[in-house]
Amino acid sequence: MQFARVVWEYREVSRPVDIDERVVAELVEEQFPRWAGMPVRAVARQGWDNRTFRLGDDLSVRLPSAESYAAGVQKESRALDFFDGRLPVSVPSVVALGAPGPRCPFPWSIRRWLAGDTVDESAGLDRVRLGIDLGSLLRALMSLPIDAGTAAGRHSFYRGSHPSAYSEEVQAALDHLHGKVDTDRCRSVWLAATTSAWDSAPVWFHGDVAVGNLLVSDGRLSAMIDFGTCGVGDPACDLVMAWTYFEGEARDAFRDAVGLDVATWRRARGWALWKALVTLADGSGSGDDDSWRVLDEVLASPL
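^ thats the sequence. predicted structure below, dont judge the formating
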């Protein structure tokens, strides 16, 4: 029996909408004529849940790719308004919210474009310095009042919730990968991840802290983008770069800068394990080499 394709956070996504430069230009012209005629061009790297286009030199247009992501537009706009000026890095401020149209049946937004390169496109980064910067950023994020946040749940694809929300998917992936992975070790890591819980007051989490959502300028972390899965709850989900990107001294620097307890790091390792397993069990081949590497890092971790 073939493992269901990427069952994780996208299991209930509706059919994607076909969005191109012409659709975006028409939406802008109809709803925001002051920006009509400005050049529209798709960014080279597109996310899964949203499509992003440059609008002139200083703006960008962000549109949900499917109905499952549409509810995040208002939530993200509220969060970004709140975060602006309260974090040690920049966030993409929203300058306008668009209404659904014939070619795009979902709400959408226009934002200020942030300059910088994503971490994965920046060669020669000092990873120890980045680990400190990112850990300090997450610590600042967790310190903010949560009044403007939304409790973790379906809207965040259960980021910020307990990792056991994905226990069935982990078991299904292990069944599918039997004989290819160290099943006993994986189960041990997952058990350690799911036998503790965040017992403090809920805090802000980003929900998708990854190399493509962090911008650097002059070798330093300068911005965080894509808050579509943000909310308030358990911050463990935001720590997975400890295994997906950092290693050795840089991982230690990241961990020290965040300042969270061992149990939270065990849940974080569970999040990294889940993502690696379900990606490998998907079997599409996309990202498999990196997922094997992450799985090795997770299983070798002393936590």
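The chain has two domains: 21-114, 118-300.
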